[in-house]
Amino acid sequence: MRHAFVHFELNSSVPAEARRFYEALFDWSFVDVEVGDATYTQIRTPSGLGGGLQPNPEPGMPSRWVPFVGVPDVRAALSEAKRAGGEVVVEYTPVPGFGALAIVQDPGGTQIGLWEVADAPAEATDESAAEPEPEVLAEEVAAQEAEAAAKKEAAAKRRAEGMAKRKAAAEQRRAARMAAVEQRKAAAAERKAAREAAAAQKKAAKEAAAAKKAADEAKAPAKGGKKVAAKKDATAKAPAAKGGKKAAKTAPAAKSSKKAPAAKGSKKAPAAKSSTKAAAKKAPAKKSSKKAATKKAPAKASKSAKRGRK
Asked: Integer distance in angstroms from the first to the last C-alpha of the chain?
């Protein structure tokens, strides 16, 4: 192919380890071929382009892959690379039996190989040899059709698998969204229940406070009535106590008037009179009793006087 990738070459500082790595990683096979005095390892893949493996030709450089592009003339491609601003890393190198190669580097430092395919041997001029037999042609057509059918089936299988994966992923996303919605609903229900419980507790507290207040108001009048009755009793008892005190004050005066005659000396008789007069002054309300006391006092005094004379 003109100016297409035709070959990939691995320049490795450890070619044996690289070979084991790629054999285990991919379905590649490695074939050693003699090229002049050296041995070159070809890389053969199940499909597509192949490549090659060789020791790193530049000691100290890191291992790297170098792609090769097919050109009709390597020398002409080298001249074009120089004019375009590139550098020549490996000059024109013939490969006996295969073609020729060269390696150039672009202005950014990336390397790429140039591959010139060797001329194919002249085709046979014999018409019988040039034209394939019908049986061979039919087999080739059948093989091509079988390969195309296999590719088509594989593509359909890949599409079906991809659709199944996408559908499963969509179902998972939908289930996750539904779960998230249910979680949000449950959280909202819990918050609502908490608010309702708080409102119920608040209402119950208000009702309890109102009931307590009503009970206190119901008890208040009874206490007030008892206090009023107690005050009335106290006011009723107060005058009687005062009267009793007054009677108690007058009572000693009466006793002193009675005791006056028992005195032996005549000089104590006037004291009885003075006491009766004092008692008469202290209790003006009982005039009759005081007059009687004053009338009796002289009689008693006269009796005591007579006793003294005797």
From this structure: 190
CA 305 to the chain's CA centroid: 122
Q: Is the pTM of this model over 0.85?
A: no
DSSP state letters, 207-256: HHHHHHHHHHHHHHHHHHHHHHHHHHHHHHHHHHHHHHHHHHHHHHHHHH
C-alpha span between 274 and 129 (Å, rounded): 190
The contacts of residue 283 (CB under 8 Å, 6+ apart) are 246, 250, 253, 289, 290
Cβ pair 271, 257 in contact under 8 A:
no
Of 246, 277, 248, give the one whose Cα is nearest residue 260. Answer: 277
Q: At what angle do helices 287-309 and 269-282 cross, to 10 degrees?
A: 180
How far is residue 165's CA from residue 292's CA, in Å, rounded to a whole number? 139
Residues in CB range of 114: below 8 A, 6 or more apart: 68, 69, 71, 74, 77, 78, 81, 101, 102, 103, 104
| Interstrand relation of 64-70 and 111-117 (parallel, antiparallel or unpaired) | parallel
- Per-residue pLDDT tens digits for 225-267: 555 556 666 666 665 555 555 544 544 444 444 444 444 444 4
What structural domains does the chain harbor?
5-121 (3.10.180.10)
